[in-house]
## 1
Amino acid sequence: MKNKFKNKFYKILKKDNRLWDEKTKKLNETLLKDLIDKLDEKIIELLFGDKEMKEKFFIKVKDIFVLKQNDLKFFIDENKLDNSYTQYQNKIGLRVGNKLLSERNEVVLDWPFKDCVLEGGMTKEDQKRNEIFFNEVLAKDEIDRLYDSKALVNWKRYTVKGGEKVKELKRDKDGTIKENLIIKGNNLLALHSLKGQFAGKVKLIYIDPPYNIGKDDFGYNDNFNHSTWLTFMKNRLKIAHELLAKEGAIFVQIDHHEIAYLNTIMDEIFGSENKAQIISVKVSAASGFKAVNPGPIDVTEFILFYTKSKSNFGFHKNYIETGYHKNYNLYLENKGNIKNWKLLSLKDKVLKENGYKNEKELKKKFGAVSDLVLLRLISEFAFSHAKNVVSIRDLHKPSEKVRELQEKSRKDRNEIILYKKRDGSYAYLINGGALAFYSSKIKEIDGELKVTELLTNYWNHISWAGIAREGGVKLKNGKKPEKLIKQIIEVAGAKKNDIVLDFFSGSGTTCAVAHKLNIQYIGVEQLDYEGNNPESRLKEVIGDDQSGISKIVNWKGGGDFVYLELAKWNEEAKEKILKAKSLSELEKLFNELYEKYFLNYNVKTKEFKEKTIKEEGFKNLSLNKQKKLFVEMLDMNQMYVNFSERADKKYKLTKEDIALSEEFYNSK
């Protein structure tokens, strides 16, 4: 009878095509629970429409039926279609009855996800498709241990001469470390390890986290529900907030899938009052494979820009290069005494200066391209005679006195009226409008005078074409142009003595740009991109890399950075498990896990080793599920070596690594 009801239950829910996966022939129970939490209308309608479901999962309060959410979720847990995996969790000691240990009252759900939530233990980009997502839960009294500073190993300083030993760390007069740092390891733990040295000292944080779209090549497990993704982000953004200086800012790049959720969580952490802008960035053209997609073509991403404190952040205007402004179409002749000023058509002036009586004569000479030729001639002339090229602009909120002058200028249409503004500068009125000089558009950008316009919150001025090999490293689709990072650094106002942090470093674009601009940086990355890592990128930069912004900033190479790693322990074991190609490899590995690494105290090691692993049912589990069980047996609070345990001989840290870790944390 019970099985009949269960089968009917799943048959009804299969009608919702969001839940049923035709390839695996399974119901997405994680999504189902999420929809139940959200009181999804379609789920409620399906269950309420069946008499048996209505009686079991709804309670009538007066004339209203209320969904019993907890009862429904408990039923799902208790009646999984494939409960073989759960049975083995019970056998090994990771589950008691119908609940995970983490769901029992003995455990406080203060921190739903530990280690590198989305990545599991992945260290290589090409492991993505086989990666397992582990939902690890910590007891409250273990959180401090997770956040303890970690021991640091494999130190190396890179200069133009190559790699060399790190003898000491440079600090400023206040004791702050003044080194460019590239840190390999879990970014959450790295951020907590940085806190003691850099809390309140970082001017700019830029991150390009996983977008949670299930198909990008960024390398992280990029496909999971909103609440999981937000927990992952919230954990890291909270510590990022602590690292920011009071005059600092954070820029987080994302696409449309999670922007609303990310916006909400950043409002909570940084304060909605400190939200500066959402910047839209054009990242591609409406062509190629995108053009066949239904609906509007997706060509933008977004950057959420928050300050630590708006009152302390130094906002200033930024400018970008643009083309000729066509509304500047007048030429001011006889500039000198204002009484002799005369406004002419800029087009007529340019034609005359180039020996043409009129536009018809130019068209006769150049035919079909005459409009382009004329535009180029006007553009070049306007740039070189910017002080005499003007437009007539409407006045914005003129004072009563200025309105009187406006009326006077409308009556005397050709007379130019001079008046002094509140800031001490002068303005010129003619025919009810004000003269705007083209020279105000000419500004220096990257050492050259350019025609400019104010930077807005829509950025379409940065090309994404041809960036695949920038910096001598290649990262598919996740890579950002160096010019984008340079623009962000300029908006943030980061200068030579500031610190820039990127804890999703990828191929190291942020650090490369900061290096070329002579700004201190810290980059954190866990994945191994096999020769396309941040340290590879920075070696190229030191060796006179001429891609990206190099020519703009006249980069000639030089400088140095320090590479270091979080000291792994159970993380090593996890990597070994995930690399296993068969159950026999896992079986051989178990003795090493038991003898060398830390297993969860709940694990029934003897029963697992002597009985469970030999059972036919266990052998029939997929290799991924077998790996997942092995990883769940690891103590997730022992993934890396805590700094406080650096001298323990079982970790085999070198004297040099111990000494440098002590120097880093100022603990000698």
## 2
Amino acid sequence: MSYVFIDGVLQGTVKDAEKFVKNTIKERRAGKFSKNLNILYNEEEDIIKIQLDKNRLRRPLIIVQEGKSLLTSKHLEELNAGKMSWTELIENGIVEEIDALEEESALVAMNEKDLTKKHTHLEIDPIVIFGMNTSMIPFANFNPSTRLLRGQKNQQQGTSLYALNYLNRLDTNVNVLHYTQKPLVKSFTQDMYGEHITGGQNLVIAILNYEGYNMSDGVVVNRASIDRGLSRVSHYRPYAAERRRYPGGQIDDIKVPDKDVQGYSTEAHYKNLDTDGLVSPETHVRGGEVLVGKTSPPRFLSRLETFSTAANIRKDTSVKVKFGENGTVSKVLLTESKDGNPLVNIEVRDTRPIGVGDKVSSRHGQKGVIGHIANPEDMPFSSSGTVPDILFNPFGMRRMTVSHLIESLGAKVGALSGRYVDGTPFSGEPSEDLRKELEELGFRENGTETLYDGRTGRAYEAKIFVGNIYYLRLKHQVADKVQSRARGRVALLTRQPTAGKAMEGGLRFGDMEKDTLIAHGSSLLLKERFSSDKDIVNIGDRSGDIAEYDSFTDRFTSVVDPKETVSKVEMAYGFKLLIEQLKAMGIRPQLKLKDKFKQKRSKQ
């Protein structure tokens, strides 16, 4: 007896489980049961699972019986002529949708020529195994799965014309590519999803080392290409200021703040504001400068503070340009928030040419950063005078992205013959045909050419692979990530530098970074590196406890023994804080002091 579970609930038992499952599937295909029903017999547990619930991912497959597909050429003709619809294919039991549960008992063939009597289903097209982004990778069937996963992620990160109405929108942290291009080699799904979602440009690529600047995943870019607008983007960042209302009838004021408000910055920061407290469109602004002048009322007033003059001073809560950024005010919008309060939306744009440290990628997961921007006269060139836009490292091919090379070859054919090349996975143009066509166009069939060193004029001994490839500029830009500081703000509790770029923070120099300095033999630098919160603390010589300041005698005395001597010890304020927090927990740490000068004399 096999138990039957419907949507996870036990409903009964059956004697012959396999016969029951076969009959259920037969009745479903005949239209007697719901087409949403999926069934599986688990032999190990001897249970039958039936799923009828909503929101399950199900995919269509052609039904196979006795090793033959039920979808015939006659059906295809009727579909092309419009005499038959997709719904009719499902209703007539030619195509069915199965979920992950029923898929366990199915044997699916990729192509019709692979069918055997064991197969239960046939894929409509092998490309169905890929998702939306992966299906747009040309010749994806020649790539390892790990590269395809990275490739489709990189396509999501590529800067592009993400929406045609981008000028009317206020999206966070947006990059719009100036000169978007259609890929020369593309899958048919690219046309289905729309040309506007493409986010890259067709570049000339040479697979070649260049003085180690493109080692590992780095790439070398031609400066002339950047000057002509290669991968140039406009970066848009929105800012918002709301004029809020508070209990007691108090409200925020949007105006140029008076100098007596709490938190007033320097006058230079307010120079861009008009009399209404707002910045004008097309004003150039820098990091820290005010876009919207705003003052807020004093909040959290206690009974005593209401009568004090200090408590009634308004606070400056102006909206400023993010630290480290600059740009031009693109638009200023006056509207209302969902609470009905006046709302100011400001958008700042910044044109960003591609530079060293910016991230680029092909559609095959071959991502890297720009390691060097070479002058055009120093770049290698071919006999026809073609100078590559990008120099890609040959060692990058160790990742076995064969489709990277096939796309380069195909795009080279497309550029020379003036056509788009079909790179649909499993059904695109065969690479053999592309190689023959390239040979007919007067090039070597393997895509290699003789290149000349731009610095010496000599020909490289090896033949260099040169082709065209669709490259993406990714949203990860060095301008958003670069961070440095000298002296600056510190945290109130630990007296250590604040963390994070937005907080004008420092970069943590941790234990592993400390080890690198020691390994370089420059351990004396550690004294400078680890003194960001240096503090001089008075410690009792015998008790090892922190001495307290006695204002009556104007000196530090030990709490344990007022007569004992006290020494000044240099330590991190974070360590002193730890000692005091341990004391608060009832633990009394003791610092054992040694005379530094005595130790030196004993060593001598």
## 3
Amino acid sequence: MGLLGNLVLVLILAWVVRALLAAREVTWLRLVLAVLVGSAVGATVAALLVIDLTLPIEQQVAVFEERRDDLYALALPFQVIATMLAVVVLELLLARPPRRRGFRPVHPWRALRRRLGIVLRGWQVTRILARHGLAPALGLRRGGVAVRSPEELARRARSALEDAGGMFVKLGQLLATRPDLLPPVALDELGRLHASARPLGREEVEEAIVAELDGPLEQHVAEIDWTPLGSASIAQVHTARLHDGRRMVIKVRRPGLLEAVERDLAIAVGLARLAERRTDWGRSYEVGAIAEDFATALRTELDLRVEGRHAVEMAEAAADRPGVQVPGIVEELTTERLLVMDQLVGTPLSAAGHEPADTERARRLADELCASQVEAMLRGERFHGDPHPGNVLLLDDGSLGLIDFGVTGRLDSFERSSVFQMLLAVRLGEPSLLYESLVAIGSIPPTREPDEIERRLARFMAVHLGPGLPPAQALTDLLRLTTQLGFRLPPQTSTMFRALATLAGTLEQLSPAYPLIDQVAELGGAELTERTSPSSMQELLQSEWAQLSPLLRRAPRHLDRIATLLQHGELTTRMRWLSDARDVAVLERLLNRVVVTLLALGVGLISVLMISADAGPLLAGTDLRLVEMLGWLGLFAGTVLLLRVLLEVLRPPARRPPP
């Protein structure tokens, strides 16, 4: 009963300590774990103080039986202190800035099932990686990956992703669109990834569609082909006909997909963070942040309304290009899980196998496709982020069609200005100007020296900038170089460069030896010329003069007043110390911690003196003096205060919403 009583008392005190320390991450299950660990440690310390370990085991047992009650009483303070330290350690190990704000209902069984699913799925994925010999590459095991060539490593990675299935195939497909991160051999291998998703049956598809529509299916759709046009890991596509005769494509998201997606994304992000901690390549590429970006992009792709909005914006951007069509969206039927759009009848360029027989028409179509995307980039309109040959259709009417708008981009005014500066730097062959444009739009690690970066950029220009304009491959090489140099470009800018690199391959298939860079320079030349022309400079000067002229008119009066004050010795200055509320908050937190620390030390010192004092009345029925009991309570309070300050210093601050 003494041991059980100690456990109950320690648990109650631990619950109080958790509340006093504001230990956000120590749940009830973790609190019980801390109590068990602390009780075991405290009992061990007390036993070492009471029992002489040099005695034979029989005598040690006899001493334990004889002094059992004393041992339980002696163990209690050590158990409390050890449990408090265990609570602090668990809070520091598990502490993280909260990502969600507001009230959310607690579903313990659902959370337990989700965690169990992540553990089992993670075990399955790690076994697959180990079977393909990739565990050392992610830091799961020591050593290196035993491969003979980059081709073999790429094949292993593709096979592992295919065996893992689920969202890992989708993540591999997203990686295949990142020429800045992977070499061409890896891009080719990952480009062959295909999802072995089970096609949904008619009942499942019909139930999913009806759940998103307002009314029965027959009210909106006159006819639907239940044989899927395509079935992927996220959605399945069917053709249909509306009552007005329009041929449509219906894209419906797979039912119950969110839980599986979040589970696989949690595992993928966890593996990326592990690789970033344990491997050199993971740290150099910051794969944890890259995995987070992929997860964000994939979650966005799950909302089909976003894809519908992007399609509408792309159609507006390409409205003046009759050679490029974008399917219209039936917005009244489109929901988060359902997308209804016009059907474009044609053949993907990837399936055509060769360019159109009429080379002149092929060049005209390539010009239209290139102009539609590049102009959208330069004007700050929506452009296709992955225009590979599978997403470009050669339509039956002789024009081109764009499909699959899960990855798109749109540059803001600041990004467009920096992109123009980069184009001007490439045209002039100025590495310093290119460096300034990259710094203006992105961020670089503080460990990189500007001179080193400029030398690398100059070497890049010397290799790629000969007579004439650089080849399209130079875009991919420049993007890969920025990644190697540690530049973190904005997502939309990176999407633009990747889209241009992908567009180059598509245009090559449509019209061999297509001069993409020449077209980009020509389309951007007008804007560049306008920005650097005398008339533009005159407009800039007029704008600046309009802002400066009122200040210049008031300047003589201000100077005269300052001179008068100086002459009479009346010129004074006034400074408001700590006028910023954030500075005041920092100072308040620092002073609070100092005061609490001094208070804790003072209370602890006084408590120790009270415990050692042999004075005061005894408590009824015990040998414990009142002063001694108050000393133990004070020592407990002082310890809690010190641990609270320790947590405030070491724990990451809570994420606050922006003002």
